[in-house]
Amino acid sequence: MEPADPPPAVLDHRTYVRYGPGLSAFLTPPLVLGEPVQTVLGEAIPLHEVSFVVVDLETTGGSPVDDAITEIGAVRFEGAERVGSFQTLVDPERPIPPAITHLTGISDRSVAGAPSLATVLPTFLEFARGAVIVAHNAAFDVGFLNANLLRLDYPTLPAPAVCTAKLARRLVWPEVPNVRLRTLAGYFRTRVQPTHRALQDAEATGEVLQGLLDVGQHLGIHTLGELYHACTARGRPNFAKISLAERLPRAPGVYVFRDRNEQILYVGKAKDLRARVKSYFYGDERKKVQDLVASVSRIDTITTRGELEALVLESRLIARHLPRFNAHGKRWRRYVFLKLDPREAWPRWKVSRSADPNDGAIYLGPFGSSGRATLAKEALEEAFPIRRCTRSMGRRTRFAPCALADMGRCLAPCDSRVGPEAYHALVGAMLASLDAPEDLMRLLDARMTGLAQQERFEEAALARDRLRALAEALQRARHDRWLTDGRLTIAAASGERLELIGGALRCDDPEGIAPAAPIGSPAPRDRADELAVVRSWLRRHPGRVLACDDAPAEPVAGGRELAELLDRIRAADDPRSRGRPASAPAGRRRTRR
Question: SS3 sequence, 9-29?
Fold first, then answer.
């Protein structure tokens, strides 16, 4: 026959542990653990399979450092089934304040001869082995336990603990005016009412937990991971719409938020679609996220074979539909190109908002902003004295030259100082240097180093920024040409088989919501992010070329110089770098706009 629960004051001071019907034991001294307690924290575990230990403490005060534990009570649940309880008084080894005695009924006489905490803790840890710790205002109880575990050289309780107060704020507010344990016990009509005694309060908390889990089941909280998200949610979670994610797959892919008019609001990617989408409904203080959740009415998904396919599909959908809640994916609208038309009478570099691969012009880019494009343009003009004026010029156009002509930094075709043949020869040499840039890089690097040695640090820093913008553009252009030249099949290290046609990755898209034609070179602004995703992913996950129309091999001329130069400049710009190479001078960074 199962014994009744002990009275509030256990006068024989023995630790009382009860496991299920017909199995109870008085343990004196408590069981000593052979190994640390490990809590199961698998986020995908269904809640009905999770072991919970609901714990409550009575103490001499509110400080884990200055005060001590006087009583421990705990109840163990396997899912919704109560399987055991634990209760003991503890000798705090210090006087109990009268106010605490008045509140709890635990006096110095009550704990006289009670076991010390060092004797009690091993038994409690064994009772809680493999379970998730639960408490009401868990920071208080877990803080006391962990402070004493550390003092006695035990490992702390596995985090995170489940706080029923935080969970109640997410699930039953504002229906429940506050989240005090007594208020929640009344709301859920618990069998045991809290009395400021450890076991009774733990029993009441356990019943409140079961009530909250029942509410959570109706709101889509079915696993331990979802329970943790609900407890740690910021702001007011929008559980009312969490059912939209109930049937989403646990697979990598792309998710699409739509409003009631079927307009796409937001596009994102995830390794686990269901978990990622559900996280939006667990509360986020950012107004943008709150507005998104308030507007969504339907969620579509596209599962993919891997990360790269998801990244590419996300980029295509954003570029095609321009969702109003996607900010990062729409930056391509700021992209620009450098354009030079060799058919002009006196060609010059121009900053262009678009690129036409069939117009016969030479393009470099795209650049992330007009400022970056201008830096690269100035680097080329520093090395080659072509004209910089924006005035339209025919073969016979003449006007007064600017100061650059007198400084020898422009050939000045405006006043016939150079003929068409010599000018076009200079332009041809400049374009050749883009394909084999080793001499160009050495020239610009030497100029930057010379300025630094002359202690002209502002000018040296500007020369560095120009050189970096140009070198990065040339390196990207090489990579993009390899990817966009015809067909390319790669066996990635991750096991994926990647097929690119003109730089466009072939993706599984059964509904055809993100079709893509070949990208080509130069990449259009709205496809530049897609090509950048492929380029970056292949750099991080190098694979083996299985088939290609043109071998994607690094051209020898200038490839090494570009890589070494960019490595040096990036290392100098890295705040973690201890030294700064002479060719990458210090100085206040300037951005030309």
Answer: CCCCCCEEEEECCCCEEEECC
Is 176 found in the same domain as 260?
Answer: no
Is residue 364 classed as helix, strand or coil in its secondary structure?
A: strand
Q: Kindly state the average pLDDT of the residues 410-435.
A: 86
Whether 196 is a known active-site residue: answer yes
pLDDT, tens only, 28-67: 333 333 343 334 445 678 888 899 999 999 999 999 999 9
Q: pLDDT band at residue 9, thresholds of 50, 70 and 90?
A: very low
Q: How many separate domains does the chain show?
A: 4
Question: What's phi and psi for 344, nearest 5 deg?
Answer: -70, 160
The span from the CA of 266 to the CA of 509, in Å, is: 18
Q: What is the DSSP letter of 555?
A: P
pLDDT in the model for residue 585? 47
325 and 431 both lie in a single domain: no
Catalytic residue among 196, 218, 222, 321: 196
Claim to verify: residue 111 and residue 246 sit in the same structural domain: no
| Residue 452 tokens, joined | 């630094």
Indicate whether 49 belongs to any domain.
yes
For residues 422 and 346, is the Cβ–Cβ distance under 8 A? no
Residue 302's CATH number: 3.40.1440.10
413, 441, 440: which is closest to 347 by C-alpha?
A: 413
Together in a domain, 508 and 523:
yes
- Same domain (yes/no): 172, 65: yes
> Both 277 and 204 in a single domain?
no
Q: How confident is the prediction for the chain on average, in pLDDT?
A: 81
pLDDT of 281 reads 76
Contact 472, 384 (CB under 8 A): no
Which single residue is written with the structure tokens 């025919």? 394
305 and 248 in a common domain? yes
CA 110, 115, 121 angle in degrees (round to 5)? 125
pLDDT at 141 over 50: yes
The answer, yes or no, to whether residue 588 has pLDDT greater than 60, is no
Range of the domain at 198: 15-218
Residue 7 has pLDDT above 60, yes or no: no
- For residue 490, pLDDT beyond 80: yes
| Cα 588 from Cα 591, distance rounded (Å) | 10
If asked whether residues 299 and 408 sit together in one domain, one would say no
Scanning the structure block, which residue is given the tokens 């091999």?
A: 553
| Helix locations, 508-592, DSSP H | 525-540, 556-573
